[in-house]
Amino acid sequence: MKAIIAYSLLVPLAFALSVYCCTLAFASRDSQPPQSSDLGLEVDSRDVDFGAVEQNRVVHGQFVLHNRSTAIIVVREVAKSCGCTTAEISAREIHPGGTAFLDVTWNTRSLRGRNSEAVTIVYFKNGETETLAINLTLRADIQPNVKSSTDQLEFESTLPTTKTITFHRADSTPLHSRLLQAGQVKRGSRLPTTAPKSP
After folding, report:
1. 98 φ/ψ angles, rounded to the nearest 5 degrees
2. How do the pLDDT tens digits run along the chain, 199 residues long?
């Protein structure tokens, strides 16, 4: 009987003790000062995808940079992975709460298929020695401007008659034509798929 009474007293006592401990924990948490959101440099999006782009086109994109720290951010360098890209930042010093814009240009040149280029922002907080970096990426599906599985056509036999070969863009519009005279193209001859240079 005594054991039953002791057990019935222990249960509410344990419950009251757990409620008291939880109350203390929440009170302690609420009394602490808010943590600083000293996050440094933040970018709206680290990836710009241009989607389908025709070969040899120049595309333009922009990254928006925010200083979320309490110190001035100094951009030391904007590094690029390829000479086919350029990058220009609107401000080398970004004050707390301030915004800067990084404008990038990508010349797709003769690239084909799914491609990407990297742009890296190297920076530090004013008064600190630690150097930080943010990696950004440009992406595109580069479409060849001629329908060809290769940069050159190789003939397996001598062309017996005069023929005209017409090359088309990816959207099927004519790009350029070449007139090949009989006997001009021998076995093993190679014909570039790109347009001939104007004289």
Report:
1. -85, 170
2. 544 444 455 545 455 545 454 444 444 444 333 333 346 899 999 999 999 998 888 999 999 999 999 999 999 999 999 899 999 999 999 999 999 999 999 998 878 889 999 999 999 999 888 999 999 999 999 987 655 445 566 565 566 667 676 666 656 666 666 666 666 666 666 666 555 554 4
Q: Are 123 and 102 in contact (CB under 8 A)?
A: no
The tokens of 111 are what?
Answer: 């690239």
3-state secondary structure of 18: helix
Q: Which residue, among 110, 135, 107, 133, has the nearest Cα to 50 in the 3D structure?
A: 107
Element at 74 (helix H, strand E): strand 73-80
